[in-house]
Amino acid sequence: MPTDTQFATDWLEERYRFDVAARNPKVEAACLQYFAQHPMVSIIDIGAGTGANFIYLSEKFPQSQQWALVELNPNLLKRARERLKIWAAAKDYTVREDGQNLDFRRNDQHIQVQLLQGSFLELPRLLQPDQYQMVTASAVFDLLCEQMLSDLVQTFHQNRLALLTTLNYESMAYLPADAEDDHWIRLYETHMQREQDFGKALGPRCSDFLEKEYAQLPTAQMLRAPSRWQIEPADTFMHGHMLQFLEQSLLEMKSMGHSGKGLDAWLQRKKVQLQSQQLRLSVAHSDFFTAPVYEG
Ligand SMILES: C[S@@+](CC[C@H](N)C(=O)[O-])C[C@H]1O[C@@H](n2cnc3c(N)ncnc32)[C@H](O)[C@@H]1O
Question: Which InterPro entries match (predicted)?
């Protein structure tokens, strides 16, 4: 498998409300404004997971829509189908299902969704990119290596696709701060960028890299702004997930020869703070919207 697709459905669903709260309103407004005069909008969601990006964004567009949800992991795509049907029924859409297509109608609004299992690294094999107006990707680009993201940007550019990408990881900070936080968080970020079969994932360098790639291309507009998760002491599940990711990654770094001295004690201090409802975590991400010079 070229990129990481082993994401648990409960984790993707847990992070949803943090993603919603974090999304940058200026970046979102720029995207909605760009399409405001279009009677219909067509969007490719790459790395769609369980459909979170569709569920969030489709309600923001008042017009009819055509979506392609591209996801490599068939279990996540199966869950996306279920989630979208539940969502549509709750929003009073009439739902029709035909193979990989879902069709939602409410009053004059018509939303067509195609669920496509495959790799977005081979997008033109799955669909005709020039038949769409925008690509969206949430919490995806930091998983990719430079070459992958660079090739995708070229595909978007050649097909005159706008791009809305959200929740690209940048950094994290715990409160109360611990003298060892910096060391372990840096090592966690080194793990994100470790050598994998496909190369080194961009991790926290993703947004800078994306911005540099687009700076070399003509664009009608380009906007990057922060989107931050605030994980409060009462958000115990989310803290639990984050601590588990840190622990797994840091243990893997230890097995690769990095010193694990002090790791157990550091994790233990975090767990005690979590239990006594003192732990806060702020995770910085960034959102990005860019529009092509010519409309597709
Ligand atoms: C962190 S999850 C984000 C999921 C979703 N966008 C969300 O906001 O909840 C990253 C997603 O990208 C998918 N993915 C990773 N590499 C992929 C590829 N090459 N082609 C298609 N999907 C991929 C993973 O399976 C996973 O569902």
Answer: SAM-dependent_MTases_sf
- For 9-172+198-232+283-292, CATH gives 3.40.50.150
Q: Please tell me the distance between residue 107's alpha carbon and the centre of ligand 1 in angstroms.
A: 32
Beta strands at 101-106 and 94-98: parallel, antiparallel or unpaired = antiparallel
Whether residue 124 is preceded by a cis peptide bond, meaning omega within 30 degrees of 0, is no
Tell how far the Cα of 5 is from the centroid of ligand 1, in angstroms: 6
The predicted-structure confidence for 182-216, as pLDDT tens digits, reads as follows 999 999 999 999 999 999 999 999 999 999 999 99
The 10 Å Cβ neighbour count of residue 19 is 19
> How is residue 121 annotated by DSSP?
G
Q: Is the CB of 119 under 6 A from ligand 1?
A: yes
**Are the C-beta atoms of residues 110 and 88 closer than 8 Å to each other?**
no
Q: What is the reported pTM?
A: 0.96
Distance 35 CA to ligand 1 centre (A): 25
**143 touches ligand 1 (CB under 6 Å):** yes
Sketch the domain layout of the chain as residue ranges.
Answer: 9-172+198-232+283-292
Give the pLDDT confidence of 151-175 residue by residue, as tens digits: 999 999 999 999 999 999 999 999 9
Output the CA–CA distances (angstroms, integers) from residue 119 to 3, 7, 71, 127, 203, in the order listed: 9, 15, 7, 11, 19
Using a 6 Å cutoff on CB, does residue 84 contact ligand 1?
no
